[in-house]
Amino acid sequence: MKERKAWVMNGFVGLLLVLALVGGGLSLLITETSPVLGIVLIILSVLPLSSLTVIQPNQAMVVTFFGSYAGTMRESGMWVTVPFSGRKKVSLRVRNFNSAKLKVNDIDGNPIEIAAVVVFRVVDSARASFDVDNYEQFVEIQSETALRHVANKYPYDSYENGYSLRGNSEEVAKELSRELQDRLSVAGVEVLEARLTHLAYSTEIASAMLQRQQATAILAARAKIVEGAVGMVQLAISQLQEEGVVELDEERKAAMINNLLVAIVSDRSANPVINTGSLY
Predict the structure, then answer these.
(1) Where is each Band domain found (predicted)?
(2) Residue 153 sits in which domain range?
(3) pTM of the model
């Protein structure tokens, strides 16, 4: 069911009509010109009075008439609509939903804790009122379901070139928004934004994963140090040979490379040893 505009009349015009009907009916009763017509006019004044409605900004009023959908009033102000109709308010304001911290498994099977905030608003009041039982509860349940599904598709952290929940928050947020929009369109809800607000390893594996991250960081740092050390050794040897400071055979060159690498790569300060003899 799609939203459509309900029949409305300006509320102030409706009030004037009510006053005119009541005044005319009373005058006919008082003057006894036509008492029956006067009673009829007073009864007719109840019709516009029964449907007088005030609508606030960013609010919709869903109108039903004996079980049938008669339309929606969106424009703020005072209006008169179908007499003796049922009216239900639906907020069109932008709202936030903060999900609870969910415990799920990522694609590698690691238990993680994840939560998100969803920014949404109602764009179709008819669907929000009739196609789902309670659209606010529907948003909550579908948001948590979509969050679980997205979390199961990616690892918490990628140690290779690939998407991860921690390293690609923008991409994950966009995918979460797309999936939420697909799920919530049936309720007439538009998803404006969805972002992760909490992401962490579960407590039972947090310490082990921290050690893994530390080990990975140490290995990456060591690889960078070795790469720089090799470049420094190559530069030192080539410069000594170009300037002719000393002639190095293969054995002396190997010894120099060994000493330089140990001095540069070691995580402790090097203690120099003075050699007063010869290698031979």
Answers:
(1) 50-213
(2) 95-201
(3) 0.69
